[in-house]
Design brief:
- The structure holds three protein chains of three kinds.
- In chain A, 33% of the residues lie in helices and 23% in strands.
- Chain A is of the alpha+beta class.
- Chain A is globular and about 60 Å long.
- Chain C folds into three domains: 12-121 and 192-255, Aldehyde oxidase/xanthine dehydrogenase, a/b hammerhead (Aldehyde Oxidoreductase, domain 3, Alpha-Beta Complex), CATH 3.90.1170.50; 274-438 and 577-731, 2-Layer Sandwich (Aldehyde Oxidoreductase, domain 4); 446-568, Aldehyde oxidase/xanthine dehydrogenase, molybdopterin binding domain (Aldehyde Oxidoreductase, domain 4), CATH 3.30.365.10.
- By secondary structure, chain C is of the alpha+beta class.
- Classes of the chains: A alpha+beta, B alpha+beta, C alpha+beta.
- Chains B and C meet through helix 1, helix 2, helix 3, helix 4 and helix 5 of B and helix 1 and helix 17 of C.
């Protein structure tokens, strides 16, 4: 153990602000870490004293792309969350992702933080991830040899703080599907405080209705903060398929979802309580999505 | 590769010295430009006391490095229009919105942004927009009333 | 010579437009920076500190170690807190200090220190501390810093009349003060003159203590309090002040230290966490007869105000009701937690959490309305309470009526009703509180004022008290304006400045406005008389205003003859005896709070729908300021009730050192607080006023707990009443 705790000041930094990807890779190979919005990495640097070599990607033109109008919504690595939230096309096209984006930090932080950053930090409680999962998110990467990969988000996240990004590989953008016909989605999280808090548990749901607008055809569920990474719990929703939403079926679905998760106990919440929150949230989120669908029609 | 080293703060252009590039915008504003109305309450992006407008949008200057705001325009509480500040402070007086005052500058910047039409979705309540501003003296209700009272 | 011009006292306009100057704003660029090497261990002996590598680093100017402060300790009651320690008693305690030319050199200097520890067994819970075989302080072998006991009334005889008891064991949390301005200090030096610039409750008290210590160095210390970004009971004497004073004197350089938030919380202060066993006995017709209290208070590593807080928590709430007999005992127990400290309410919110729930429970048992239960048993004007408090005015009845009526209307009109999942509940709680606390710190309770005339004819009013952001300056201004019939701009005033202002006890204990205004009124009277005398002596026009007379006096060289000094010492007030008995205050204040909550039975989350706060504070001198104090106190109480705590790992490390996880209230989620004032006038108060500082926070926890019980019929015994805890209470029968 060190002789003394490190004072929580930001260390002396080496900052590079290149405008082309080649330079970014060059700085990465010199040991620099990526700086996007900076809301996580600067905090981490203050606490631990590192990283202290950063390369900012906000100067790369190609990473500023944001297309919310196509069938697949596409967002570059430098796009702040607030830019997305302000877009009606995004909020209408992927409501669960938008709900998650609006839950991150605070308005000030959303003007700085990016969705790619939220994903790459790989926190089990990341607010945008459950919504992105049920919107079939694909992560696009590139490395210094210009090799490009497209990885399903569920395969990209491998554990708390862990992704399957290779050495020197970086994420350029995310793309995720717009709601189709007769579909709706929603995301909710449970926090102890109304704002500025981390999710103890979170749930995203995407519903697809039959033409009658009542009977559920498919249901996708994803659970956050109750496992090493967000969990696809769509299997728990089988009971809902082929029927209109009923409290009885929702209860069974909620119980099944709570059995699919593997939460930890920490100073924020116990594992058992997190399971209970999943039980409560599943019903709330499905009902919210259904209400939204009803309002839209 | 061109790096833009100039920054416009409260309407005045400044060349960011090399030794400030990798330091926090908060420290650059407070120490180098002596704009000490910008406060550090937490340095972690939670309290909002260091809020400034960057190209018109509120951000926490404690989580921005000076180098990444090169070429952009920053407004601190010192740069808000005199007329608006008078209105804000008089509304605070009327509604008891100020106690220790350490958070108030950040709230003033947020309020000015809102009064200029600032919003995310256009429908969120004032309290949601101010979720990133902590007032430990507990002046939320008074500040909300004060802001509502500014025309 | 140091320039000892006092800082300008900021106005609301200054504070709302970024013009107010707090300590860190006054630190010039390039000032020598001080950092503290903090222990990673909770309990350890420091075997050796090798400073050679640190001293050899470029930019490191000086290093201090425990040897440099040998024999020096801080403490209001028990001098037990070292400046730098060779015996670590909590994670984050300062072991050495580094002065350097900049932040990077300071951090490097700390990292280069070689400190060898012998780790000792530690205790972070009071039960473990009581069982610890190695004492935390060698001169307190059982780890009990202070014991307290009181037993007024004939216990054995009175309990025979009791037919119904309500009892419980309650746990409260070590809430951080979490003031928005982290701890900061700037020391200016010239030879042996030192000026400490730092926000504090009590500059004169700090100067007294620090001068004794600095005298050994041949130095003198003055304390200047600039604007303060909140304190709530935390900012008193602090080891970091002495570290900075010492560096400045040794180096003959101005030095500064501004803590990052995380360090401020790790090495901070917290509210004293308590376990309280309490039982209250009543007769079948609802008379509260007997009350027993046992308090186990977690002192943390050092005592600070702990002994006073222990006394207050053990007996003060008893004074609200006409108990015939009371049996109270308390222990203040050293642990290896962050040193605890007084925090707005001074231990009383903790015991009010227990008492107001038990009174509620008795009312339910006896099928009595909780308002009537309180009305029937509360003390009133002319009463002397069970611990000797003499009540000279009491607006409790009005407060009870206001809250009862508002709750009734809300029940009728709000449309809120319980359903299968969400339960609605209403609760209320009452409080009595004292205006100051005579005998606190074993020193006379006093306030001084000096009114003088500047060379340019401006009237200068100097008080020893300080502005914490609670409106002290506004009260002083209004008092002087009224008493001297002068306008803003015709006078200036000085607060919290020991080199030019008079001695003051400082701003705490809900005493400031009361004491300062009394002194100011007396000072203004003398000043007016001096003015009249001068008018006669000089044969001036008799209708000249005070401001005009002051100008003339300055022009004609008579300024000195106008100078007025006055002090206020309350009459008929005594220091409490060892058992907490005595009329400790000139006046007592009352309040009743009410809350409507909605509890989600699926998650246990409590959402406050509406809050009512009715206060008897005597004449309201500064209405906006008073409303601000009430709402602010309620919001802090809500944080204490529902979310705020320190999470400590088994190794003693703080797990939530920041705003993200300690969960102070934020803009969203706060209820509307409806504030009322009872129309009372206290004959002992300045202009009939009493106090408002602490009372608003005291009843909140009990009030919300009672509302939660009303909603879900489960008592809450632990703070904070988190969703998980409430959910657990609904799903497991512990009691």
């Amino acid at each position: 153990m060190a002789s003394a705790l490190r004072p929580s000041h930001l260390p002396e930094m080496d900052l590079q602000c290149p405008t082309n990807l080649g330079d970014v890779f060059r700085h990465i190979s010199n040991g620099a870490q990526l700086l996007a919005g900076g809301t996580d990495i600067l905090l981490q640097a203050s606490v631990r004293g590192e990283p202290n070599k950063l390369v900012w990607t906000g100067g790369i033109e190609s990473m500023k792309e944001f297309d919310a109008d196509s069938d697949f919504i596409k967002v570059g690595a430098s796009v702040p969350l607030s830019t997305m939230i302000k877009s009606n096309a995004f909020r209408d096209g992927a409501p669960a992702v938008a709900d998650g984006a609006q839950s991150v930090g605070s308005l000030q932080l959303r003007n700085q933080a990016t969705m790619v950053g939220n994903v790459c930090t790989a926190s089990p409680a990341a607010d945008t991830v459950p919504g992105l999962l049920i919107h079939n998110c694909v992560v696009a990467t590139i490395d210094k040899e210009n090799n490009k990969r497209e990885i399903a988000l569920k395969d990209f996240l491998t554990g708390p703080g862990k992704t399957n990004l290779g050495e020197g590989e970086l994420v350029t953008c995310l793309s995720f599907s717009r709601l189709g016909k007769n579909q709706m989605s929603a995301y909710q999280r449970f926090t102890q405080r109304e704002a500025l808090d981390l999710a103890f548990a979170s749930v995203a749901a995407r519903l697809e209705f039959e033409e009658d607008g009542q009977t559920l055809m498919t249901v996708n569920l994803a659970l956050g903060a109750v496992g090493p990474t967000a969990i696809d719990a769509s299997a728990a929703a089988d009971i809902l398929k082929g029927h209109p939403i009923s409290e009885g079926r929702l209860d069974i679905c909620a119980d099944a979802a709570s059995q699919l998760c593997s939460p930890i106990s920490d100073h924020r919440a116990s594992a058992g309580y997190r399971r209970q929150l999943i039980r409560a949230l599943v019903g709330d989120v499905v009902r919210q999505a259904a209400t939204r669908y009803g309002n839209k029609k | 590769m061109t790096v833009v080293n100039t920054i416009r703060v409260n309407g005045v252009d400044h060349e960011i010295p090399a030794n400030w590039q990798a330091k926090r915008l908060l420290d650059y504003l407070r120490t180098e430009l002596k704009l000490v109305g910008v406060k550090e309450g937490c340095g972690e992006g939670d309290c909002g006391a260091c809020t400034v407008l960057v190209d018109g949008e509120p951000m926490c200057s404690c989580l921005l490095l000076s180098g990444v705001v090169g070429g952009r325009e920053v407004t601190t509480i010192e740069g808000l229009p005199r007329e608006y500040l008078d209105k804000f402070s008089s509304a605070c007086e009327t509604h008891g919105g100020v106690q220790c005052g350490f958070c108030t500058g950040g709230v003033a910047v947020m309020s000015s942004w809102m009064k200029n039409g600032g919003t995310e979705t256009g429908v969120e309540p004032v309290s949601k927009l101010l979720e990133g501003n902590i007032c430990r003296c507990g002046g939320y209700q008074q500040l909300t009333n004060a802001i509502a009272d500014i025309n | 010579m140091l320039d000892m011009t006092p800082p300008k006292i900021s106005t609301i306009a200054d504070r709302s437009t970024g013009r107010a100057r707090y300590t860190s704003d006054l630190v010039p660029a390039g000032t020598t920076l001080v950092g503290i090497a903090r222990s990673p261990h909770a309990h350890a002996n420091v075997l050796s500190i090798d400073t050679s590598k640190a001293m050899a680093l470029p930019g490191v100017l000086d290093v201090l170690t425990p040897e440099d402060f040998s024999g020096v300790a801080l403490g209001h009651h028990i001098a037990d807190e070292p400046i730098l320690t060779d015996r670590v008693r909590y994670v984050g305690e300062g072991v050495a200090a580094v002065a350097a030319v900049d932040e990077a050199a300071m951090i490097a200097g700390i990292a280069a220190l070689d400190i060898e520890y012998e780790v000792l067994p530690h205790a972070i819970r009071v039960d473990d501390a009581l069982a610890l075989d190695r004492p935390i302080h060698d001169n307190f072998p059982d780890n009990v810093a202070r014991r307290f006991a009181a037993e007024p009334g004939d216990w054995d005889a009175e309990v025979k009349r009791v037919t119904h008891w309500a009892e419980g064991t309650f746990e409260t949390a070590a809430v951080p003060h979490a003031y928005l301005e982290p701890r900061a200090c700037l020391v200016r030096v010239d030879g042996n003159e030192l000026e400490l610039v730092s926000g504090t409750h009590a500059p004169s008290m700090l100067a007294d203590q620090y001068n004794k210590i600095a005298a050994v160095w041949g130095a003198t210390v003055e304390v200047t309090t600039p604007d303060m970004g909140g304190s709530f009971g935390a900012k008193w004497e602090h080891p970091t002040h002495l570290v900075c004073l010492s560096f400045a004197h040794r180096l003959q350089r101005d030095v500064a230290m501004v803590l990052p938030r995380r360090d401020d919380m790790i090495a901070g202060r917290t509210r004293i966490a308590m376990r309280i066993f309490m039982r209250i006995g009543a007769t079948a017709d609802g008379e509260l007869v007997a009350k027993q209290t046992k308090v186990w208070a977690d002192n943390g590593a050092y005592s600070l105000h702990g002994p006073s807080v222990l006394l207050a928590a053990s007996v003060r709430v008893d004074n609200l009701y006409k108990f015939s007999a009371v049996k109270a005992e308390g222990q203040l127990i050293y642990t290896n937690n962050i040193p605890s400290e007084c925090f707005r309410g001074f231990g009383i919110p903790q015991s009010a959490f227990a008492q107001e729930q038990l009174v509620d429970e008795l009312a339910r048992k006896l099928d009595l309305d909780p308002v009537e239960m309180r009305r029937r048993n509360a003390v009133g004007e002319g009463d002397t309470s069970v611990h000797g408090w003499e009540v000279t005015s009491c607006g409790l009845e009005d407060c009870l009526d206001m809250v009862r009526d508002r709750i009734q209307s809300h029940r009728n009109d709000s449309g809120l009703v319980s359903d299968g999942r969400f339960k609605i509940g209403y609760g209320l709680a009452a409080v009595i509180h004292c205006v100051s606390n005579s005998g606190h710190d074993e020193a006379t309770d006093i306030s001084n004022i000096i009114i003088s005339v500047d060379p340019d004819g401006t009237i200068c009013v100097a008080s020893g008290e300080v502005e914490l952001g609670a409106g002290t300056a506004e009260v002083l201004q209004r008092t002087v304006e009224r008493e001297l019939d002068i306008k803003r701009g015709q006078f200036r005033f000085v607060l919290g400045h020991t080199s030019t202002g008079p001695f003051g006890r400082g701003s705490f204990a809900s005493r400031t406005s009361f004491f300062m205004a009394h002194a100011a009124i007396a000072g203004c009277k003398i000043f007016s008389e001096n003015c009249s005398k001068l008018v006669d002596d000089l044969g001036l026009e008799t209708n000249a205003s005070i401001a005009e007379i002051a100008k003339l006096a300055a022009q004609k060289g008579h300024a000195e003859s106008l100078k007025a000094t006055a002090q206020f010492i309350p009459e008929n007030v005594v220091a409490a005896d060892d058992h907490g008995y005595g009329n400790i205050a000139s006046a007592y204040t009352f309040a009743v709070h009410g809350a409507c909550v909605k509890v989600d039975t699926l998650t246990g989350k409590t959402m406050i729908q509406q809050y009512w706060a009715a206060h008897d504070t005597g004449t309201v001198v500064n209405y906006q300021g008073a409303v601000g104090q009430v709402i602010g106190g309620v919001i802090q109480g809500i944080g204490m009730a529902l979310s705020e705590t320190t999470a400590v790992a088994e190794n003693g490390q703080l797990l939530n050192p920041g705003y993200l996880d300690d969960r102070v209230p934020t803009f969203p989620g706060m209820p509307n607080v409806d504030v009322h004032f009872a129309a009372t006038f206290d004959k002992n108060g300045p202009m009939g006023a009493k106090t408002i500082g602490e009372p608003p926070v005291i009843p909140v926890v009990g009030c919300i707990a009672n509302a939660i019980y009303d909603a879900v019929e489960e008592r809450q015994y632990t703070l904070p009443m988190t969703p998980e805890q409430v959910w657990n209470s609904l799903n497991t029968k512990v009691q």
